[in-house]
Design goal:
The protein is built from 13 helices and 7 strands. With 308 residues, the protein is mainly alpha-helical. Helix 1 (3-15) packs antiparallel against helix 2, helix 5 (119-130) runs antiparallel to helix 6 and helix 11 (270-277) packs across helix 12 (282-288). It is globular and about 65 Å long.
């Protein structure tokens, strides 16, 4: 059986029924864009460790179909997961007599540079948003004080906020997709099981949310009138906001990094921060925000030095 034929069977019968919608769509895209025209035409029995490793090397050096440059180690590891999972299933159900994909050497992913706003830039953003007449902009401030991802923010409904206890419940996310007719908003389960979390809201945020709720005509906290907001549209709104305030461009995810950095600067312990961010464990948080922790450690050591 040709590998591409098995991949179609695997996606429709083993991934689609059990995985999140976004996982199925992402795997399908990877198969179409990176696997089908390269090793897809080969028989499964022809997929030796050498051929698979050569394919991975090609992705790392020239796998980007738009620029011709190499793909990131993180993305290539996702491609490897598709190959390994599909071939493991093929072996388990008897389509092939041997499983060799476990011999693929994975590239070492690089920790992404954490980019956050300075305290001055943050205050500039907050002042503009809080004095703006555009209610949907409040999501920017909410992210600065909760660390929500953009998909989690735009999927947030008023029913996810307990005003009495001051708690915000993260139970879903959203993303932009295409149903073949046009752009649609897809509501999905969170990124990982650890992304389901409860975030205590700072008491200073609650009055603003209550005012926002009184004016709202949508079930969603962040809305454009009575309509939910698309992710790309909101990211573009944020880009224009930074341009208007003459603040150098940073991605929307920088709001989450800024939340984490400010939390560490305020003395929040890594375990608590890890749970608020929805990380799998505190090690991930520590590795990602080591630079912020270094400043905190220096401050603590200087305080200790005052005893001398």
């Amino acid at each position: 059986m040709k590998y591409i034929d098995w991949l179609k069977i695997w996606l429709e019968n083993y991934i689609k029924p059990s995985a999140k919608v976004r996982t199925y769509e992402r795997y399908s895209q990877i198969v179409r864009t990176h696997i089908a025209d390269s090793i897809g035409a080969k028989e499964i029995s022809e997929l030796t460790p050498i051929i698979l490793q050569a394919f991975i090397s090609d992705l790392l050096t020239a796998g980007n179909t738009k620029t011709g440059k190499g793909l990131s180690a993180n993305f290539v590891n996702t491609v490897i997961s598709v190959i390994q999972n599909s071939l493991k299933t093929a072996y388990m159900v008897g389509v092939t007599t041997e499983y060799v994909a476990n011999k693929i050497k994975r590239p070492q992913p690089k920790e992404k540079q954490v980019d956050c706003f300075t305290v001055q830039e943050q205050k500039k953003i907050e002042n503009y948003v809080l004095n703006s007449k555009k209610d949907k902009l409040f999501g920017v401030v909410l992210c600065l004080y909760t660390g929500l991802r953009v998909g989690e923010l735009l999927a947030l409904q008023w029913s996810d906020i307990d005003f009495g206890k001051g708690l915000l419940f993260v139970s879903k996310t959203c993303y932009d997709s295409n149903d073949g007719i046009g752009h649609v908003r897809v509501i999905d389960s969170p990124k990982t099981v650890h992304s389901r979390r409860v975030i205590p809201l700072p008491k200073q945020i609650l009055p603003h949310l209550k005012i926002l709720k009184k004016r709202s005509c949508s079930d969603y906290v962040i809305a454009d009138g009575d309509k939910p907001v698309f992710m790309r549209s909101y990211q573009r709104t944020f880009e224009l906001l930074l341009k208007k305030l003459d603040i150098s461009h940073k991605g929307f995810h920088s709001l989450r990094h800024t939340f984490a950095t400010r939390a560490l600067e305020c003395g929040m312990d890594v375990k608590t921060l890890s749970e608020l961010l929805g990380h799998k464990n505190a090690t991930i948080t520590l590795n990602r925000y080591a630079h912020s922790m270094l400043e905190h450690k220096q401050d603590m050591m200087n305080r200790l030095g005052k005893l001398l």
